[in-house]
Prior knowledge:
The chain is of the alpha/beta class. The protein is built from 4 helices and 3 strands, in the order E-H-E-H-H-H-E. A 3-stranded parallel sheet has the order 1-3-2, with helices on both faces. The longest helix is centred in the middle third of the chain and has 15 residues, at 52-66.
Amino acid sequence: MAKIIGIIGPRGSGKTTFAIEAASLLSCSVGIIRVSDVLKDTLRAWRISTTTGNMQRLADAMRDSFGKTIFADAIRKRMQENTGDIVLVEGIRGPNVA
Length: 98
């Protein structure tokens, strides 16, 4: 099983930049999973613009309809499907963090 590393921080703090740089420096297979990709993939499938507002509305609707763990469940599934030696999970935030 892959080692999982969570990258946390507020919006705009450089989580994505860190994940990309870390992956390029490591000498093993690295997968990057972005929490926001779950929302972006869903919006793209529906051909809806991936604006911040649309992602926030979708996130609220998904939590209201499917429960507070919907994103954790989706990320867990993506981690299980990842074949890297290390999985960087970028964009982890608590429920009250912007």
